[in-house]
Structure formats: C-alpha cells, structure tokens
C-alpha cells in the first residue's frame, strides 16, 4: 500500500499540473460519473494530502481519494490514451503550456465527492502526519495510554497518519524497539526521536519516491545509491542476517500485514 510520502508526492504533482485552471473531470467506467459531472469544468483550487488521503478542492466540493492496496494513478502530457478497463476518474487540463495534461485513477478504495465539512471530519479522525506541520504530542498522548503494541499503534491512522508497513518496520528497527512492546512502555524521549526520524525519512521519500532507511555503512554496497535489496534493515528480509547483529530477521502477521523485526536488536 502506498505510504504517506507517495500521497504527498501525488498531491504536489497534481497541484502543479492542474491547480488554478479548469479541469475536465470524467469517469469513463461510470462509477464516479454523477460526481464527476458536478465538478467537471470547474477550477481546481488545490490538491493536498494528509496521511494516505488525497483531497482535490474545487470550491466547496472536494474529491477525496484513498488508494488502498490497489489504487494507482497514471498520468501524462498531450492527448490522453483511449479509456480502458476500470478507469474510475480521469482529469484533463490544459497544462502550463496548453499542450494538455491528464491523469487517470484506477482501483482506488475511495473516490468520492465530499463537502469541505465532510473533509474536515476525515481530517479530525486522522492522527498527526510527519510530512505536515502537525503535533507529535497528539500521537504520544494516545500511544502512552495504550496497552496495544507499538507495532499495531503505528499502523493506526487515527494515532499517526501516513505510516504504513514499510516505515513501521523500519522505524522500530532504527530505534531498537520491539514491535510487541505496549504503547504505554514507549518513553516520551523514544517517541520524540522516532517522530524526528520519521520526518527525515519520509521527506527523503518525497524527494526520491523510494523508501530508503539504511545508512550507507550498513548496506552490502557502501557506495552509491541504495539498491533495491539494500534499502531496508528488516522489511522483506525474512531469514536474512540482521545488518547490525547477524541474527536472522523474523516475520509474523500483525494488524493484517507482515511485520518484520530483528529479535536481538529489538528484544524489548
Ligand atoms: Zn539485529
């Protein structure tokens, strides 16, 4: 599932390509047709993200998208391709130079039209987002009261918005915290350090479009950009030796997703 940095990038790209101009909004598949008609031809004010949610603001109406596991945007310039398959929503705009720009959405969990009030209700339900100026103390207030494991809490979007399976596994490893530790046993100093680290890692993710959490000295290849297999400490490294201590990395399902951790480095 795309994590917060992907949505932040999409918001920025869509804003740059479409905002301030009229957008031709359609739903070739038909599932979003009635809503598309309501905003079709209107000027797009802005596109923003919060956590894994994308909001495109057309005056008082907001197109809300959550990609879920299978949602995907494709985009390009010039004339869009002939619509194929389950094309839920298509945007077409003049682009900066008038040559045309388009983007297509398929497979999203949510693609709906909301009022700005309804958008506010979604934002109220979401925890702080490390990519936005938001307050990490709000997340800690919930973590520090909870008996739920920190591995589960980090995936709870009401606690923290934007972190998914990869950042969850990696941030816990980088701070040597067991995913099975109850939230209430995480100290404020540990949380403050984790939040600061998430801000740095996720901003790097926005820049590169990839999640890279390893320090160069911990990679198999120490020089150059991190290769695919060198990008993480524990994520998708089941059975491979921990980069720090050599213990085989373990995996187990937690909150419906595979959790990865080093039982030695993250013993408590
Ligand atoms: Zn280890």
Automatic annotation (TrEMBL):
A Pfam family this chain is assigned to: zf-FPG_IleRS
Protein name: DNA-(apurinic or apyrimidinic site) lyase
InterPro entries cross-referenced by the UniProt entry: DNA_glyclase_Znf_dom_DNA_BS, FPG_cat, FPG_N, H2TH_FPG, Ribosomal_uS13-like_H2TH, Znf_DNA_glyclase/AP_lyase, Znf_FPG/IleRS
Record keywords: DNA damage, DNA repair, DNA-binding, Endonuclease, Glycosidase, Hydrolase, Lyase, Metal-binding, Multifunctional enzyme, Nuclease, Zinc, Zinc-finger
Tagged with keyword DNA repair: yes
Family membership: Belongs to the FPG family.
Keyword Lyase appears in the UniProt entry: yes
GO process annotations (BP): base-excision repair; response to oxidative stress
Broad enzyme group: lyase
Cofactor dependence: Zn(2+)
Catalytic reaction list: 2'-deoxyribonucleotide-(2'-deoxyribose 5'-phosphate)-2'-deoxyribonucleotide-DNA = a 3'-end 2'-deoxyribonucleotide-(2,3-dehydro-2,3-deoxyribose 5'-phosphate)-DNA + a 5'-end 5'-phospho-2'-deoxyribonucleoside-DNA + H(+)
Gene Ontology molecular function: any one: oxidized pyrimidine nucleobase lesion DNA N-glycosylase activity
Transmembrane segments: none
EC number annotated for this UniProt entry: 4.2.99.18
Organism: Klenkia soli
Domain FPG-type: 233-267
